[in-house]
Amino acid sequence: GTDTSNLMHIDSCSLMRLMHFQILSEGCKRVEKGEDPACLPEELPKITGTSDMTPIYRAIALLGELGLLEKSMKSTYAFGEKIRIAPTQMGLQLMARCNGIRVALS
């Protein structure tokens, strides 16, 4: 048809893998519950199912570059330092669309 409302997400989704969606989903869940959208590095393997932090940090960086998470200037984190996985409005909208909810980007 003529519905082009998903076009803005197509490029982002084509670059994303399961780990990206797991991180974004967790950030969205925390925001929706009113919780701090940050986690300790040791929580990330539980969220993603991998213990290798390098691809996790890369996934967070890519989500920031795509405008789905608030962008961080860090690529590594100190022991005990929380890592923000706060979704942007676009990230929240993408996850809503992935779950069948139609929302407009404000």
Model description:
With 106 residues, the chain is mainly alpha-helical. It contains 5 helices and 2 strands, in the order ααβααβα. A two-stranded antiparallel ribbon has the order 1-2. Helix 2 crosses helix 4 (53-65). The longest helix is centred in the N-terminal third of the chain and has 15 residues, at 18-32. The radius of gyration is 14 Å and the shape is globular. The two termini are 24 Å apart.
Spatial separation of the terminal alpha carbons: 24 Å
Beta-strand level of the residues, as a percent range?
Answer: under 5%
Q: Averaging pLDDT over every residue, what do you get? A: 84
Q: In order across it, which strands form the biggest sheet?
A: 1-2
How many strands?
2
Instruction: Count up the helices.
Output: 5
3D shape: globular
Low-confidence parts: none
**Biggest sheet: strands, sense, closure?**
2 strands, antiparallel
H and E string: HHEHHEH
Q: What class would the helix/strand composition place it in?
A: mainly alpha
Helix content: 40-55%
Q: Radius of gyration over alpha carbons?
A: 14 Å
